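Two proteins were folded this term; both appear here.
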Amino acid sequence: MTFYLVLTFILAIWNPVTDCGCFGDALILTNWQTFYKNVILYVPALIVFLQRGRFKPPYKCTTEWGLIAFYALVGVWFSVYNYRNLPILDFRPYKTGTYLLKK
């Protein structure tokens, strides 16, 4: 995260590209907005990293791995479903129902 924080700061200063492309067409952020987003996410991540020894796992190890496997399978299923069908949330510029002459 530190690397990307520095990288987005450099990109914000020199502005070689106008959009980071992180979220595709769903959310368009400028380089400065991306940098501020990374700063906001960096602070709690740094707190968690520095306090990592004080955290106790809420579940048993087998339960945690089961949850990880479940959410990984849901993520893979969702990706494959959207790849094979029309996306559930379509942020493409020429999605179904768009009047092309206006675009």
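Next, the second protein.
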Amino acid sequence: MGSLEYAAPNGGSYLVSLVQTKSTLAAYSLLRYQGGGGTPIPYSFGIDGDLGVMGLAGSHLKFINGVTVVAVEGTGEQADNQQSVLSFAKRFAGTLRDGPGTIPPLVLHLPDWEKKHPKSGLEGVGHAVSLPVLRALVGPSGQPVLDAVPFDGGVEAATATYEGGRLVVVEFPTPQHAFDADAAVNGRIAELRAAGQTVPSVYKRVGNYSVFVFDAPDAAAAEKLLSGVKYEKDVRWLGRNPRAEEIAVRAYTSTMGGVILTTLIMTGVAILLCLGIGGLIGGAVFLHRRSQKAAQQVYSDAGGMVRLNIEDLNTPSPAAKLLGRAED
């Protein structure tokens, strides 16, 4: 951690503090965490296009740059000038190389996280990569059972307050890690319940998540809040996928089945179109010829009936057209 003081041409000065963390998740957690000695500063957290995730309280401003948490405070003539501090922080951020900080994915997986604040969704949302920070965010009601949560190997947690209680989601990097933690948490809950101490309103393992609900008004509200947590799994093989051939065969079968079905449907449609168009054309020709025949006046000497003229059949054939008798 280091602090530098900068003098501005307008006569003011600014005190800048830099805190280096191990990861962007730790930086976000430190930005949101209001622990430490003294009275915490009531920051209003939000998202700025130039600074990324930031917190602002009067002339005190904090923002994330990669894995670094930057704190800017106006001193001297700029001690109470919020706009001046914000403008200086944006110019200072341009000198840093890592770029604006972002919201951790786990926070984005909280139910209705964007509704926690009308602009940014960051108010009331906490993030932790260590047990002390999570304890401070949750408060006394969650401290006994959270002692069983192992914060090692990339474990992180997100928490927010809802009408149905306080929700805590702890994410573990592997299924085995989540399984071991689930066993430890269930054992701890049993111990606390037997000793008559405070336990979560409801607890459940969801994928690689351990989900807690504290201070719920009733069991139905706790279950409803917990049901809003969805685990989105992403399985990746370190080497060759042993099921690659099975997946390829399934995809090929599905594709060929679709092709055959489409061919049959198109053939049936083509036959129906041909029959329909042929029927229309044939019907039109038939009706046209019938109308033409009905329009003709046919002479008849048989009372309107058709009479066969067979008189020509009794007429002797011309001899000139017959072959002579063969001579012996």
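Residues 117-121 have pLDDT under 50 and may be disordered. Residues 124 and 263 are 57 Å apart (CA to CA). These notes refer to the second protein only.
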